Amino acid sequence: MHVLVTGGAGYVGSVVADGLIRAEHTVTVLDNLQQGHKEAVPEGALFIQADFCRSKDLDAAFRQSSFDAVMHMAGETIVEYSTTDPRRYFHTNVIGGINLLDAMLRHNVNRIVFSSSAAVYGEPLTAPIEENHPKNPINSYGLTKLMFEQILEWYGKAYGLRHISLRYFNAAGATDRLGENHNPETHLIPNVLKAALASTPVWVFGTDYPTRDGSCIRDYVHVIDIAQAHVLALEKLDNIKTSAYNLGHGQGYSVLEVVQAARKVTGIDIPAKLSPRRAGDPAVLVASSNRAKSELSWEPRFPELEQIIDSAWRWMKNRR
Ligand code: UFG
């Protein structure tokens, strides 16, 4: 299939684009390079520097090639900023998203795989979280992801759009060539590893959560496994009725446990500074991914936290 990957120069998007090429699909990346990096666009992919929020840009892209599907991975992604600047999130993730769907309809493209998030659930009532768990996002980022999932449902019912939303838990790790490179970096694993390289402390945001050691618990998933789930979702899209899948391991690690695992992987005694909570963080997010395993035949290859951290560490050291 020829797939248009929005956000394909970003962290997860570039690894997904790479996975699609390895699975012998044709890829065009559309990215405005606001957060993405041109050098992250995989070899073999066509690249269009454009903004999915602009209809004119999209019409030009859709005229350029005939696409079989869209993987929509572009958007505003940082949970914390979504609590202080929600406008940006609604404009980009919701209004921009509708703009993309309307362009797809205009150009007769009727398949989409969407990067959704564990943030749609809010504070979980049960763990691990299953897909039918109530959705009460506690930040505008999660709300925009949920709104777009609901918009997809209506576009599916009314216009025959085929769609799957993949709710990532915490994407982490790297391939040999592609890793996490945000500016500013807000994510835990790259920040811990940067602290290891720079001999500076890592900040632990919140030690008074109702968890085993007081720090937040997350379910870290290797970005290569996330990419694999996208390829499977695309290939099964025409024959599947389910519209959303969690991607996680059902195993959560606290911030302090991640820091400890990073000390083991790097051999560096990374200092941790305990600090107040960060806005918008739920205490625990751990997935049940049974549905993705049984319906998409998703088989994560890198479930161990230390493997995930090790891949990110090797990538980071090679870039220096
Ligand atoms: N954290 C620190 N220190 C840091 C960075 C993060 O203590 O330097 C803490 C955070 O407060 C949080 C945990 O580490 O408790 C994980 O934070 P990340 O920023 O790495 O990831 P988030 O859980 O905030 O968000 C990520 C994705 C979202 C997704 C969410 C779902 O960025 O898109 O996972 O679990 F919604």
Note the topology.
Layout: E1 2-6, H1 11-22, E2 26-31, E3 46-49, H2 55-64, E4 69-72, H3 79-84, H4 86-106, E5 111-117, H5 140-159, E6 162-168, E7 170-172, H6 188-198, E8 202-205, E9 217-218, E10 220-222, H7 223-236, E11 244-247, E12 253-254, H8 255-266, E13 272-275, E14 284-285, H9 290-296, H10 305-319
Helix pairs in contact: 1-7, 2-4, 4-5, 6-8, 6-10, 8-10
Bound molecules: uridine-5'-diphosphate-4-deoxy-4-fluoro-alpha-D-galactose.
The site of uridine-5'-diphosphate-4-deoxy-4-fluoro-alpha-D-galactose has 21 residues, from helix 6 and strand 8.
Determine the mean pLDDT. 97
Number of domains: 2
* Distinct small molecules bound, one entry per kind: uridine-5'-diphosphate-4-deoxy-4-fluoro-alpha-D-galactose
User: Which sheet architecture does the biggest sheet show?
Assistant: 7 strands, parallel
Task: Give me the count of strands.
Answer: 14
CATH superfamily of the largest domain: NAD(P)-binding Rossmann-like Domain
| CATH architecture tag of the largest domain | 3-Layer(aba) Sandwich
Overall geometry comes to globular
Low-confidence stretches: none
Structural class: alpha/beta
Core attributes:
single chain; 14 strands; 10 helices; UDP-galactose 4-epimerase, domain 1; 7-stranded parallel β-sheet; 40% helix; 3-stranded mixed β-sheet; binds uridine-5'-diphosphate-4-deoxy-4-fluoro-alpha-D-galactose; 320 residues; Rossmann fold
